Amino acid sequence: MSIKHIFLFLVLIYSQNLFSRIFQKENKVRKGFKWIRKQLKNLNDRIFGPCWKAKRTITNSPSEESDVYNIDTAIFFRKKKKNRKFKNKALSRIKKRVESKVKKTKRNIVKNLLN
Fold first, then answer.
1. Domain count of the fold of the chain
2. According to the UniProt entry, where is the signal peptide (predicted)?
3. Based on the domain organization, do 60 and 8 belong to the same domain?
């Protein structure tokens, strides 16, 4: 074996080692991002969790108030969260939003009838 062959062999070993390190780091980074995403999602669920359901189930007509207040039951049937303080805050926020929505729709209906 000449010096050239030995040199190429060493370069090959070094490059393989380098690539394996890069791939290991990439996997760690990927796992890290996955973990961060998961934590953010959990936090988002804790604070704003029920809101996305509320947005879907809010109805425009005040005659369907029963449907509007079914939001509360939909929220309570969700998985029980460890931290209830966040949940209660979110619930009160949703109730206020729903009540204001109902008032607005009633007002609009009255305006339409008068005009």
1. 2
2. 1-20
3. no
**Using CA atoms, how far apart are residues 25 and 88, in angstroms rounded to an integer?**
41
Count of Cβ atoms closer than 10 Å to residue 50 Cβ: 21
Residue 26 CA, distance from chain mean position: 25
Local structure of 107: helix, strand or coil: helix
- Same structural domain, 44 and 59: no
Task: Find tokens 């760690």 and name the residue.
Answer: 28
Residue 10 has what DSSP assignment? H
pTM above 0.90, yes or no: no
How many CB atoms are located within 10 Å of the residue 76 CB? 11
